[in-house]
Amino acid sequence: MDRVFGDKKAIAILLGPALFMYTAIMLVPSVWSLFYAFSTGNVIEGFRPVGLDNFRKLLDDPIVPTSLRFTVTYALVITVGQILLGLALALFYVFVLRRASALIRTLVFFPVVLPTVAVGLLFSKMFAIAPQTGPANSLLDLLGFGATDWFSTGSKAFWVIILMDLWRTMGFYAVLLYTGLLDIPGEVLESARLDGAVGWRLLRHIVLPLALPVLISSIIFSLNSSLKVFDSVVALTNGGPGTSTTPLNLYMFQTSFFYSDYGYGSTLAILITTICLTVTLFLFRSSRRDLTKG
Amino acid sequence: MATRTDLSAPVATRATAPAPPAPSRRRGVNWRRVGNRAWTGLVIAVLLVITIYPLFWMFASSLKTENEFITEPLWSLPRELNFQNYVDAWELGGIGTVIRNSLLVTLPSLFFILALGAAAGFALEVMVWKGRNTVLLLIVGGMMLPLQLILLPLFTIYFRLGLTDSLLPLILTYVGHGLPLTVFLMAAYFRAVPRELFEASTLDGAGVFRAFFSVGLPMVRNGLLTLGLLMFFSVWNDLLIALTFNTSKELSTIQVGLLNFNGEYGSTLYGPLFAGICTTVLGILVVYVFINKQIMKGLAAGSLKG
Lengths: 294, 306
Known about the structure:
The complex is a heterodimer. By secondary structure, chain A is mainly α. Helix content of chain A is 74%, strand content 3%.
């Protein structure tokens, strides 16, 4: 028995290919990019070491604060939106529609699987004002608010990006939280109701505390993916007007491939990695503490 | 990172926790219930409009002629069913080519992610050896590494190896990047298989590989299917990797192709652009209609992972 499942050769054959691919594609390049951060140049012109220059540049670069502010604001707004909308939908599925929710769940989930660029282009035409007025502006006109050029300023474009990403992802968070709510035992809800907890009180004191683990994993997941936002912005505004809707991720991409500065690009990549790791670890630790407190 | 006990075995979706029916009065029309019904209906209607209208508008627009775009408001319906835009999109935007490229990238990536991931999951969970937990942790830790960190060195590697004029960089990167999550989940699926099954198979004289192919894989096939779907959508809809390693129009995937098409013709040729978007969306819709149950089940099973 132990001889069969302890067979070194078999382990090497089974694990080897995956371990090799993982090391070659993920581990080696990750370490390698640390070295890039201390040099400048690109693959065609070659590299030369510059010491800490890239990190000094990072502190002086006026685009970094703008970009960082956009990224963090976007991540916070989208996370709050995704969790609130997802939770509202999940509660609607579980407590109002109950067993009849399958069709609605499936429909609302559909945008999740669509190519982001397709959705981005669709929304850019929906919110367009020139050369043709899109349906969103026609609706605003009809309601008496007046059409507006949504992509003329960063703050207006920001809300179109938020709206589009909420449309795209709310079905996902709804299903995620829905499955979490289903795990709450029926008897617990039943006895809480008998004790007189209904509506808001049932939600606040019974449902939310019991759904906390899945809520926290949803928040971690949401923050982590929104801090790395790229696709939706590229397809919708491409970072503009100016750099007002450029997330760090897109700035890193532009620096590396339009300005061919791999060194500074890697420095930006390290900044993104640091932010994501810090946020995840912080949330993970604080959620652990909360859970043990009960 | 999640500790090993966090990920419980895949569970089947269970029935909805039944809530008691709203209290009803005995006599007359129950106005409260009617009111509740009306609210429910309204919420459903709003949800349907929000979800379906953009897609419906996109489809309607794809049937309009260039003239209709200029003379009529964008929200109006097409006057007749006109499929010329689809022909144009196919020829101008090379929609056929980008779909073929996406398939050529996604299918091999999917195969290797699942094959390598399942084998590694088996080696790390069913096989018994010193250091397997360390290796599992090392691989799973990769989930924390964002793509941005690996793109530039990878570009250098592919460039030096002379791979940049092919679809290989995409496939290799997707496989490497998809492995941490796949190995993590495969190990969890194998953990849920009763150990006695593997022991019994060795008593019957089966070797490791027999145990893997004939006992292990069939036992985790639901997990494989779920992971396959997850990976399919993440590879099919990826933009960052595809854009980084894309060097020519002939090698564009769907996402990159749509972006290029919009850049070239998007401000003038509305009809073909909408037709192009529609084609890619309809393709996914067909897939989705067949597999949405499996997606929901998979999400339910994996929802507790931290």
